[in-house]
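Annex B. Sample input.
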Amino acid sequence: MSEIITVKTGDFLNVSITTPYDEVACLLEKRFNKGITVAETKEKLEVFTGAQTATMKIKVFNKDNELVCTLDNDDALLGSYPIDDGMRFHIEDAFILRKELDTASVEKFDISEEEYAKRQDTVKAYLERNRLGKYNKEEVEKKELEKKKEEEMEEKLAEKIKVNDRCLVRVVGQPERRGEVMFVGKTEFKPGWWVGIKLDEPQGKNDGSVSGVRYFECPPKYGSFVKPQFVEVGDYPEEELNLDDEL
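Annex B, continued. Sample output.
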């Protein structure tokens, strides 16, 4: 009788994602249902990392950057592995394309699109032969549907958040922060729904503007943009420092 693998812990998991080109800084943070399989996890990650499901390897690291495990069984549930909130999924794949390359000193090799299409030793040819990535129509349609569902979920969460709401921000791997909602909607810097927050303390990254586009006003380092799933609105008054307790 085959062993039944079940989810050991809670229903959801918040992790950060890195690739060989983003190890210093987190590429993004994602929330996964522990009831999905490793194969389904890879499909979701393919959209964001550029790695291919068929060749992707996922290594899990803890907050001390120690290797915890490798997600090596595509049929296993994500929750069957010893993964906790705040851990990091490091994605390895030979087909991840580096975002920035220093090509100043490299001799350029030009080839026409026609000639490139005829070659059989290219990444494009490999992907076409194995029906991977954008050359797999069913997979492309599936990913587009998943992306649409995720955006619909974000929109529903965003509808519950209003400008001037007090809030608590809980982002994986970062301390909790309090602040006031100043913006809810879509932005020009990244797709999807975002919440702009004026933090109570200078723990942010901006002044309410990103790449020259202003979304709200606040002092430098007090502004932060986070996804709706990391924002909890409610009675979160600004905390006061009790200096009497300090020596």
